[in-house]
Amino acid sequence: MKYLCLVYQEEKQEPNVPRDQIEQAKKDYWAFTEDIKKSGHYIGSNGLKHTDAATTVRVRNGKLSTTDGPFAETKEQLGGYFLIEAKDLNDAIQVAARIPSAKWGSIEVRPIWG
Amino acid sequence: MRYLCLIYSDEAWWEKASEAEMQKGMAEYNAFTENIKKNGNYVGGEALQPTKTAKSVRVRNGKISTTDGPYVETKEQLGGYYLIKAKDLNDALQVASRIPGAQHGTVEVRPIMEFDQP
User: Fold this and answer.
1) What is the pLDDT of residues A46-73, one digit of tens each?
2) Total domains, chain B
3) Distance, in angstroms, between B17 CA and closest chain A CA?
């Protein structure tokens, strides 16, 4: 089954994180991604630009309206995702727990339809 | 540039919808998907099962903890996404506005971060 792992972390903390820790986090992400590619869990992943680059779109009565910012203001922000293949929910949770941000942020795991 | 279009809508609608409404809703999504595949905007997309199937996972001091439910409770719920290719933000917003869910829900458009290998 396919699962989407949504990665939430506090983007406003990032400027306070020392450079070497950021470099380490990048290395950890590359190592994790390589690891789940090897184990066959990896389908795809992307990092998102910060929520200040977000635009929300609605169409009502055929009229398009856009507002700056994300859909919901939250303490931690959606910063990226991994789409994975896993045997079952438990296997998906084990993979999600190895996403580096699980140590300082939150990962939401959602099964995919179909 | 690549953009992620996150689709938020009232998931209760799909549970309450009649068979005919559901068929129509799915037909609109299929038509939209075919359309953006043809014009080269489509990169990927998935529909998510309802938030009641969600688990939130955290690791603190090496210990995994899981809680039932999504990261955040909202009036409309994340129900799926499209990953698209667009010329610029304006082009991305035009594509996003044609997602069927934009008619009754909300679509959040976020540019993708391009990383260099460390």
Assistant:
1) 999 999 999 999 999 999 999 999 999 9
2) 1
3) 17
